Amino acid sequence: QVTLKESGPVLVKPTETLTLTCTVSGFSLSNARMGVSWIRQPPGKALEWLAHIFSNDEKSYSTSLKSRLTISKDTSKSQVVLTMTNMDPVDTATYYCARITRVLDAFDIWGQGTMVTVSS
Amino acid sequence: EIVLTQSPGTLSLSPGERATLSCRASQSVSSSYLAWYQQKPGQAPRLLIYGASSRATGIPDRFSGSGSGTDFTLTISRLEPEDFAVYYCQQYGSSPTFGQGTKVEIK
């Protein structure tokens, strides 16, 4: 069974750096046909793609947030980590990680999401 | 960046009715890279359709996708009670983007 699970702080202060971890199971981060993306959703709003990483360490970032994001992976731990610097209250959202399969070119399996609130 | 515009914003229908959801792209999207997701309150999105018209594993055949270029459609042939939710289209180009969503609500 393929699962992804997000973990990280529930509350961060403005200007702080957010670090989120996605732990995957049921597939390997070394699989050339698969990658992991981070996607967020502010309360009551639409989904916003943030970044992705593939097995060959190919990375891509949202144009509007690129300067604040870093994505990395630890294949041995089956983890993908996203850091976002200089957090602001507008970054309050549920953050999801999702698997991408190159065969489908879509996000086929999603984590349950983790809600992050930015407030002093 | 490709902007996806979904219409209508809200669709009010009764169970058993047909739902037609539209997704228009600001520039041409490869059909291979157009997907639809369903999201229910408090849940993560679920992949329904990929490649514009292929149903994901376990998705009932009352869901169908069509379209090409800049205009894509998700059709639910007969609404079941569990189909009332928010639906998002998404394109998977070099920089993936989502539409703003269409809410299908019970009339």
Structure report:
The complex is a heterodimer of chains A (120) and B (107). Chain A has 120 residues and is mostly beta strands. Chain A is 0% helix and 53% strand. In chain A, strands 2, 4, 5, 6, 9, 10 and 11 form a seven-stranded mixed beta sheet that branches. The mean pLDDT of chain B is 96. Helices cover 0% and strands 55% of the residues of chain B. Chain B has no helices and ten strands. Chain B has 107 residues and is mainly beta. In chain B, strands 2, 4, 5, 6, 8, 9 and 10 form a seven-stranded mixed beta sheet that branches. Chain B has a three-stranded antiparallel beta sheet with strand order 1-3-7, with no helix packed on it. In chain B, strand 4 and strand 5 form a beta hairpin. Chain B starts with a strand and ends with a strand. The interface between A and B is medium-sized, with 22 and 24 residues.
Can you tag this structure with a few keywords?
heterodimer, A: mainly beta, seven-stranded mixed sheet, four-stranded antiparallel sheet, B: mainly beta, three-stranded antiparallel sheet, 55% strand
Q: Please, what is the oligomeric state? A: heterodimer
Shape of chain B: globular
Q: Helicity level of chain A, as a percent range?
A: under 10%
Rg over alpha carbons of chain B? 13 Å
Q: Please outline the major beta sheet of chain A.
A: 7 strands, mixed
Structural class designation of chain B: mainly beta
Q: Uncertain regions of chain A: pLDDT < 50 for 5+ in a row?
A: none
Strand runs of chain B, count: 10
What's the helix count of chain B?
A: 0
Query: What percent of residues of chain A are in strands?
Result: over 45%
Low-confidence stretches of chain B: none
The sequence of SSEs of chain A as H and E is: EEEEEEEEEEE
What kind of sheet is the major sheet of chain B? 7 strands, mixed
